[in-house]
Amino acid sequence: MTRDAATKWADVDLGAISHNARLVKDLVGQSTAVMAVVKANGYGHGAVEVAQAALSGGATWLGVSSVAEGVELRQSGISVPILNMGYTPPAALSAAIAARLSLTLYDQASLEALQRIESPVAVHVKVNTGMNRLGAPAGDAVRLVRELRRSPNLRLEGFWTHFASAESEPDFTRQQLAAYLEARTRIVQEGASGFISHAANSAALLRLPEARLDMVRAGLIIYGVRPVQDWRDLPSLRPALSWQAMVTNVHLVPVGGTVGYGRRFTAAQPTKVATLAAGYADGLHRRLSNRGRAVVRGQIVPIVGTISMDQATVDVSTVPGVEIGDIACLIGSDGEASWQADDVAKAGETISYEVLCAISARVPRRYRNL
Questions:
Q1: Looking at residue 11, what is its pLDDT?
Q2: Are residues 254 and 219 in the same domain?
Q3: How far out from the chain centre does Cα 358 lie?
Q4: Is 319 helix (H, G, I), strand (E, B) or coil?
Q5: Is 39 among the catalytic positions?
Q6: For 19, how many CA atoms within 13 A lie in the half-sphere containing its CB?
Q7: Total structural domains within the chain
């Protein structure tokens, strides 16, 4: 792997993002739109760059979780519809409207704030079907639709819900879908029409075709990671991000020697240890201490000792020739050896979403292949 002036970086393959969006579009068909979810800085990949790549692959909507995220996309020149899937504070309404964002609605106070706005606003009413996070109970959602349809400045653009466990509980997910469809039927019976119905996240669009409706919200799979590691849907899906860190020191720890804060690793035999220029301030979680892995010179090696703010240490006793300036993969592949976000998540007892989103701004992103 080539050396770089930086000591750590993440490579983002925008061609993979575009390819993955195209796979989703081909799967759901022409009658179903694809929203690329690019919140949280594009799951750590870079929101603007990911959005542009996903749009080139066939997505026609973008999803964010705050007004600020939507404004950033608009300021980059992106003009497609953008839905703020999160809460819009009253103080942010002017910025949201100026940026032509579509807004999620699920409570009376927000409806009244929107009704006081003289500019036209596109609204997506969210119904709570079991996630119990954001969303109005079905009866309240129907009432919100009824009231906003009487407001000359408000337009019902969408009606949606979110699944709690589509990757693991298909029966509960179908119950959620049925509750959503019942609420949708009620608003249609009251005269609502021309709105976008959407419910399916990555897991549901893969495993519950009946939930695809008018639009799917593709998040994790846009980035080339499956909701469940051993699923084999979309076999040509391509991980978009790899994360590298430079070896900054190599030394031999004698038998009985310890490594790192708290002396949590003790060498049972002479151990060659390489120090890597990445720590928990970069997003390499401390809970991976003595549990995580990296790839060095084509071999998977264990993290040993406590991960510190700026550095981690790996046992490279089995890897010949390791030296300062070598590059270790924290996420990615080197030759036949692969250590992906799913593997990091499993070692750290978390999920791949968190692994990707946690890679901090201290890690420069390098973009290629669009």
A1: 98
A2: no
A3: 10
A4: coil
A5: yes
A6: 16
A7: 2
**Which positions ≥6 away from 79 have C-beta within 8 Å?**
none
Strand partners, 368: 13
What's the CA angle centered on 35, arms 123 and 29, to 5 degrees? 120
Q: Which of 284, 167, 157, 186 is nearest to 226 (CA)?
A: 167
Q: What is the pTM of this model?
A: 0.94
**pLDDT beneath 50, residues of the chain:** 1-3
Residue 223 annotated among the catalytic residues of the structure: no
Active-site residue, from 8, 25, 39, 126: 39
Does some domain include residue 154? yes
Task: Please check whether residue 308 is in contact with residue 261, taking contact to mean a CB–CB distance below 8 angstroms.
Answer: yes
Find tokens 């301030």 and name the residue.
281
Q: Give the structural domain span for 147.
A: 14-223
- Tokens standing for 186? 């009620």
CATH number of the structural domain spanning residue 83: 3.20.20.10
Q: Which among 190, 223, 256 is the end of a domain?
A: 223
- Beta-bridged to residue 217, according to DSSP, are 35
pLDDT score recorded for residue 369: 83
- Catalytic pick from 25, 87, 106, 261? 261
pLDDT at 2 (0 to 100): 44
**Can you read off the two tokens belonging to residue 22?**
């195209």
